[in-house]
Specification:
Layout: E1 6-10, H1 13-16, H2 35-43, H3 64-78, E2 82-86, H4 89-92, H5 102-117, E3 121-127, H6 133-139, H7 145-162, E4 168-172, H8 182-186, H9 196-221, E5 226-232, E6 236-238, H10 243-265, H11 270-278, H12 285-293, E7 298-303, E8 307-309, H13 331-345, E9 349-354, H14 370-388, E10 393-399, E11 419-421, E12 433-435, H15 437-451
Parallel strand pairs: 1-2, 1-10, 2-3, 3-4, 4-5, 5-7, 6-8, 7-9, 9-10
Antiparallel strand pairs: 11-12
Helix pairs in contact: 3-5, 7-9, 9-12, 13-14
Bound molecules: 6-O-phosphono-beta-D-glucopyranose.
Length: 454
């Protein structure tokens, strides 16, 4: 592997950080834990103003805010070359004011310096499902153009502050997931009786513009900064040889690729232009120029599973095994999506998430997560084959460095980390950190890979 290849891992503010009393609320802070409620919130966020008595796990995460030094020391022990984390906008701007919160900026100064102390490259996501709630309540997130202006103010503040130390920037987490989770990704609540697709397209238009403004802001400050946006890479197979299944697959691909098409090519592909017209989205020349002139340097890809489409409505792929949470396990799909993306966009890819979310058990004070090691091994194998096939991959960051609150389930017990955190689903626990077997396996892998660098 290339000597600059980034072997690393990821975390996010909304899932790990906590420090709730020193920042304002984010969109995930008000999503309750109970599974049923959570899905309602993710999919029908109109209910977001009601706050039923419940437990809100993201408010505390795993208290990375309090424990960042200890956690980063463990990341260093593992040998990580890069850590991706998100800055919480809600810590930088506590509300709609022009004054950033100096204590918040200082916290990320400390995190970045601590990482650099161990030669771990900090990679920043500007929003990872953690938009400030005040932006939602006041402007309905990216549905409103004013959020683009607020975002610009936020990114100017953080890029100006950290550009000497942060070289890779990622605008949003999984922009294409907004197709199903508009509130989580775009901070937008669907007003009653409004056309969902119309609201989605408006929100997308503004997010694309905001992404281009991050590219511009970074490049204006320092041309060598690299900017990406994260896209969920989910290959989709047709269940049968029916042309209808093929058509469904193609439509699914377009919905997932349309944002990347604009962010990489700088123009709306013909089918996306048609959609914009259909939903009456005004596309101003001024914006189109910004989109054209400020395209991504790399694509950040997450990969967990593949999906299928079928005109019969079957949703289960009979050829693949699944995790305890029903996600397909498909290492070959990883290689396929990496190839597909590189073939379509021909710019470098940074894998920013890949991992197994499942239950872990403590035995004699240890966690023998050989199932996670097996999952990661098989995916890395396929990634290496993609590299051999010519795909330009600049790094591989697993999900996740340490256990955190799961996004879709709100559970602590759906664990992804190399480091176990003693926190239970009800919030109880000592917060003690315990390296899992996968921690030592990844440490060894990075060590071995470093010997074979070219
Ligand atoms: C990605 C997100 O969608 O998948 C992470 O960027 C998330 O935030 C990860 O944790 C795994 O999903 P989940 O729902 O199992 O936590």
């Amino acid at each position: 592997m290339d000597k600059n290849f980034l072997w690393g891992s990821s975390i996010s503010g909304g899932q790990c950080e906590g420090g709730f009393d020193t920042r304002s609320e984010t969109v995930v802070d008000i999503i309750p834990q109970s599974r049923e409620m959570r899905f309602q919130y993710l999919n029908e966020p109109g209910k977001y103003l009601q706050r039923p008595p419940d437990f809100y796990p993201s408010q505390n995460g795993v208290e990375f805010y309090e424990n960042y030094q200890e956690d980063i020391a463990l990341f260093a022990q593992m040998g990580l070359k890069a850590l991706r984390f998100s800055i919480l906008w809600s810590r930088i701007y506590l509300d709609d004011t022009d004054e950033p919160n100096e204590a918040g900026l200082q916290f990320y100064d400390n995190v970045i310096d601590e990482l650099l102390k161990y030669n771990i490259e900090p990679i920043v996501t500007t929003i990872h499902f953690d938009m400030p709630l005040w932006v939602v309540q006041k402007y309905n997130g990216f549905y409103d153009y004013r959020t683009v202006e607020l975002y610009q103010k936020y990114i100017q503040t953080i890029v100006n502050r950290y550009h000497n130390r942060v070289k890779h920037w990622i605008s949003f987490c999984e922009i294409n997931v907004m197709n199903s989770a508009l509130y989580m990704v775009g901070g937008t609540v669907l007003p009653p009786h409004w056309d969902r697709e119309e609201v989605l397209h408006q929100c997308a238009y503004h997010m694309l513009l905001a992404n281009a403004l991050l590219v511009k802001t970074c490049h204006d400050i320092d041309k060598t900064l690299k900017v990406g946006c994260e896209v969920a890479g989910t290959p989709c197979y047709p269940l049968t040889s029916s042309p209808i299944d093929y058509q469904l697959m193609m439509e699914n691909g377009r919905k997932n690729n349309r944002y990347t098409d604009v962010m990489v090519k700088g123009i709306f592909p013909y089918y996306f232009q048609k959609e914009m017209q259909k939903y009456h989205i005004e596309m101003l020349d001024r914006d189109l120029i910004i989109l054209k002139e400020n395209t991504l340097d790399f694509i950040a890809v997450s990969y967990y599973k593949s999906s299928i489409v079928s005109h019969t409505g079957v949703k289960d792929n009979p050829c693949l095994e699944k995790t305890a949470f029903g996600w397909t396990i498909d290492p070959l799909g990883f290689r396929l999506i990496l190839n597909e993306m590189y073939e379509r966009y021909e710019i470098p890819i940074l894998v920013v998430e890949n991992g197994l979310g499942t239950y872990d058990k403590i035995e004699d004070g240890k966690i023998h997560d050989d199932y996670r090691i097996d999952y990661l091994k098989k995916h890395i194998e396929q990634m290496k084959l993609a590299i051999e096939e010519g795909v330009d991959i600049i790094g591989y960051l697993t999900w996740s460095a340490i256990d955190g609150v799961s996004t879709s389930e709100g559970m602590m017990s759906k664990r992804y980390g190399f480091i176990y955190v003693d926190r239970n689903d009800d919030g109880s626990g000592t917060l003690k950190r315990i390296p899992k077997d996968s921690f030592y396996w990844y440490q060894e892998l990075i060590r071995e890979e470093s010997k074979n660098e070219i």
